[in-house]
C-alpha cells in the first residue's frame, strides 16, 4: 500500500477526507503479510512501514534522504504500538516506538478490498525524548 504523508493536524477525524485538497510532505509505504489464525482473528497483519519525509520526484529526488521505518502488528483495533527500527538522513539514529492510530477514512478506494482507504495518525516517541506527529 502507498499513501501521502501530511503535517500533523491536516487530516480531520472521521470519514471523507479528500487527499487532493492538501499538500503532502512525503510518502508512506506499507508492505507485509496477512495472518490467518482462526482462533485469533486479530491482529490480522504484520507490516513494515516506511515514512519518506520528502516528496518523491522521479527526476530530482527518486530516493528521499530523510526516512523512518517501523515494524509491527495491525488490524482489529484502532491503535497499535510499533517499533521504530531505523531511519536515514536526519533520522539515521532513530529508535523508539510509534503509535499508529486509525482516525477515519478518505475518498480513495482500496483496490484490494473495494473499501475507502483508512487515515492514520502516527505518534512518534523517540528514545532520545524527542517526539511528534
Question: How would you portray this structure in words?
Answer:
It is a single chain. This protein is mostly beta strands. It has one domain. It has no helices and nine strands. It has strands at 2-5, 14-17, 26-34, 45-52, 67-74, 79-88, 96-109, 116-126, 131-132. Strands 1, 2, 3, 4, 5, 6, 7, 8 and 9 form a nine-stranded mixed sheet that branches. It is globular. The mean pLDDT is 91.
For the report, how would you describe the main beta sheet? 9 strands, mixed
Structural class: mainly beta
Number of strands: 9
Q: Please work out how many helical segments DSSP would assign.
A: 0
Query: How many domains in all?
Result: 1
Radius of gyration: 15 Å
Poorly predicted runs are none
**What best-fitting shape do the alpha-carbon axes yield?**
globular
In angstroms, what separates the terminal alpha carbons? 20 Å
Strand fraction equals: over 45%
Q: Fraction of residues in helices?
A: under 10%
Topology pattern, helix = H, strand = E: EEEEEEEEE
What's the overall average pLDDT, rounded? 91
Amino acid at each position: 500500500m502507498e499513501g501521502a504523508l501530511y503535517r500533523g493536524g491536516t487530516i480531520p477525524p472521521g470519514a471523507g477526507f479528500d487527499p487532493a485538497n492538501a499538500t503532502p510532505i512525503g510518502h508512506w509505504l506499507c508492505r507485509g503479510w496477512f495472518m490467518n489464525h482462526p482462533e485469533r482473528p486479530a491482529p490480522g497483519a504484520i507490516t513494515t512501514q516506511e515514512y519518506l519525509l520528502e516528496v518523491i520526484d522521479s527526476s530530482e529526488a527518486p530516493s528521499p534522504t530523510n526516512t523512518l521505518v517501523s515494524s509491527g502488528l495491525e488490524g482489529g483495533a484502532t491503535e497499535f504500538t510499533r517499533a521504530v527500527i531505523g531511519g536515514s538522513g536526519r533520522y539515521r539514529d532513530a529508535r523508539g516506538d510509534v503509535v499508529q492510530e486509525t482516525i477515519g477514512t478518505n475518498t480513495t478506494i482500496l483496490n484490494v478490498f473495494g473499501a475507502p482507504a483508512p487515515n492514520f495518525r502516527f505518534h512518534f516517541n523517540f528514545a532520545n525524548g524527542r517526539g511528534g506527529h
